[in-house]
Amino acid sequence: MSNRRFPFTEGDPILSNSQTLPRADRMGGRAWGVLLVLCGAIFLEGIDVAMLNVALPSIRAELGLSTATLSGVVSAYVLGYGGFMLLGGRAADLYGRRRMFVGWLVVFLVFSGLGGFATEGWMLLLARFVTGVAAAFMTPAGLSIITTSFEEGPKRNKALLFYAGTGAGGFSLGLVIGGLLARIDWRWVFFTPVILSAVILLAALWLIKEPARDERGPRRLDFAGAVTVTMAMLLIAYAVVRLEHPGQGWGWTVASFAGGVAALMAFVSVERRSPAPLVRLGILKSGPLVRANVSALLFAGSFFGFQFLVTLYLQELRGWSTLETSLALLAVGIDAILAPTLTPRLVARFGNTRLIFGGFVLAAVSYALFLPLGMDWTYAAMFPSMIILGLGFALAYGPLTIVATDGIAEDEQGLAGGLLYTAFQFGAALGLSAVTAVNVAALGAGGSPEAALGGYRAALVVPLVMAVLAAIIIASGRQRVSAKEARLASEEAIPAS
Length: 497
Prior knowledge:
Pfam families: MFS_1 (PF07690). Helix content is 77%, strand content 0%.
């Protein structure tokens, strides 16, 4: 394998004074520098989302936003992120990963800052939508830089697990940091990412280099495919978001879903005829990739749905402050420590699939332990769920990233990253919508604390079901692999007999 294709390979003089490395998974200084820059970007994306979530009450109080507008501040980001993720991932493959990463990081920086100067609801909506679009281009570009810079194997696995742990840590720490900043001034929730973005941008310009283009020449964007898939993703994302508000009627929701499906069918038709498709449909024939993405969607839905319900329970029913709630959820952030330290060793010993399955099972156990939620539960009663969920996340999140990108051609790594993060984003939106719909239905017209508690208990079944389904999907893949291995072993044994 040449160093031109994988810059950070064993014996690369850029990374070490020696010509060889004593360990296959050891990385040199420049490799660590590039990895830390990319980890900073995914940390930025996680912390940005988490800080905004806990600052929403403060934003509503100062700007006088309606409930619909306040919800739209979150939904606008989801629409931009989910709607443009596939296009963003493929754009990284076609036009240069460094170019996409750096360029859209600038956009992220600018519009995050503009959100901090907002004086009207529409300004926040615009800022969050464009910030979501920027993240949709920046995130898969960053992931594909890792998967094309580190050779497949222990070194890439180590980089991806470190990357995944940093992203999860950003979300966990963002809850606490957002709570602290919101008590000072909610505008700092928008200004803080600007400072972090500027530091990452300067480091990226210095450390990340665009690899030499291949000899196939410039590639043209499949314009019809780009339009139809973006339209499909936007409509489906909008329909999923509307599920959170059943009281607004089902007309627009059903119409959005129907329009999204129609646009998706048109996209498939375009891609089948296109000489240079935006998404090569054959990539979806990879069983591990499909199982990883579907289970990632369910896992993200279960996690974000659970976190949302716990936040409502602690703040609205128990009267805990934003900061107290953030600290209560901080135990889940243990995955930020375990993912880059313990998980690589477990992957080397047990493999990715077993770890993912174990992580999903732990998540299901965590949600099940929270089902008998009480009116006066102490934090000691909640802590087992929090710490077990953190362990489950540490086992599953990084290996999912590895499985979703393993065996994919180098010129489609951006697309693979786009598919994975689209699954995560739609899963998060679907989980939030599902738990909200069940909670509202179970609550009915009751306004008592007991009725609210009953609504939370009913909605907590949703994350449990999603985690169990995710575990079943991953287990089915493991069974298929085992059956294939057994068949090959029997075929090899026939001539010997």
